[in-house]
Specification:
Rossmann fold, single chain, disordered N terminus, alpha/beta
């Protein structure tokens, strides 16, 4: 088996990842009290529209504390209800002047335009920051690891240099569902049901979005998986992540009728490795009973693995999931 550089495995998807100010400490015994968590306006945020609020270190018993942003539309009002879109890699969503590569998703631009044109429901966006050093452990679909051989598991632990190496995707989802969502539901004028709750991410965040709707189909009504990192790890790894991920999907992806699923991919830079997996995604969707009305797996010719590619087509997943 080829040597897998675990640092490369972690940084492979860091097109949307660096955050120098994120604290690394956490308290295992800390109890999350909704009343004590306060989102504060981000002064000086470069937005096209709306308002950005932040908790710098959202407390958690499951994952390392990190910033969480909330974007509210310009005309946000307590007099009406909003859908909620949860997004991974929150530091990359709104303001390119603060990102490591000076790119962003342009979520505020697209959300404002689509809502004002009546193309989507009214919604707010909740962005969960990543921590670069542990992004892979947080966002890898943890239970898909059960479909990898014991030999491959041992190999990864040896390469990682730690017998205590563990994935943390299940705890990341517990954070979203048990700690973050109740705070959003209690503090903002939002719908709480699955029909108005969605999740979206790119690369490893695409994998986690698929995992979220598979593990919590009663919570999320739709998932958008952008440039989903089907490889699961380093490009040259012999550990069969991709096969394990597909086996997990075959066993656990919700049947048609329970949710909406959006997948897409390009064919440049890291995305060049993704088209080979498209037929298998199509097969799984077909096996689960999905049609074009409730699932997409779209190819964008000539697009690469970057926020600039994702922001150019962000209207596609937004209108698919949240369209009127």
């Amino acid at each position: 088996m080829k040597s897998l550089n675990i640092l490369f495995c972690l940084s492979l998807m860091i097109f949307s990842c660096k955050n120098e100010n994120t604290k690394q400490e956490t308290s295992e015994s800390e109890t999350i009290e909704k009343s004590t968590i306060e989102f504060k306006t981000v002064e000086g945020a470069k937005l096209a529209s709306g308002q950005l609020l932040r908790v710098e270190d959202f407390p958690s018993e499951y994952i390392k504390p990190r910033p969480v942003d909330i974007w509210l539309p310009e005309d946000y009002s307590e007099d009406k209800k909003y859908s909620v879109l949860y997004m991974h890699d929150g530091q990359m969503l709104f303001d390119s002047t603060t990102t490591w590569n000076k790119q962003e998703w342009k979520v505020d631009e697209w959300a404002s335009t689509l809502m004002s044109n009546g193309k989507t429901k009214d919604f707010i966006v909740v962005g969960v920051y990543n921590i670069a050093d542990i992004r892979w452990q947080d966002l890898f679909p943890q239970k898909s690891f059960d479909y990898i051989s014991e030999e491959a598991k041992s190999e990864l632990k040896n390469i990682a240099g730690s017998k205590d190496f563990k994935l943390n995707g299940d705890n990341y989802l517990k954070f979203l569902v048990e700690e973050l969502k109740p705070v959003i539901d209690s503090k903002y004028s939002v719908y709480k049901d699955k029909e108005h709750t969605f999740v979206m991410g790119s690369s490893m965040g695409g994998l986690m979005s698929m995992y979220a709707i598979s593990e919590y189909p009663q919570v999320f009504g739709g998932a958008a998986c952008i440039s989903t990192h089907r490889i699961g790890g380093a490009v040259d790894s012999d550990i069969p992540y991709s096969d394990a991920i597909f086996k997990y999907m075959e066993a656990n992806l919700p049947q048609a009728g329970q949710c909406k699923l959006y997948f897409d991919y390009g064919n440049k830079t890291l995305d060049e490795h993704y088209p080979q997996y498209a037929p298998r995604v199509d097969d799984i969707l077909k096996q689960k009973g999905y049609t074009e009305d409730n699932a997409k797996n779209l190819f964008f010719e000539g697009t690469d693995h970057s926020e600039n590619s994702w922001n150019a087509r962000l209207d596609q997943p937004l209108t698919f999931l949240l369209g009127n």
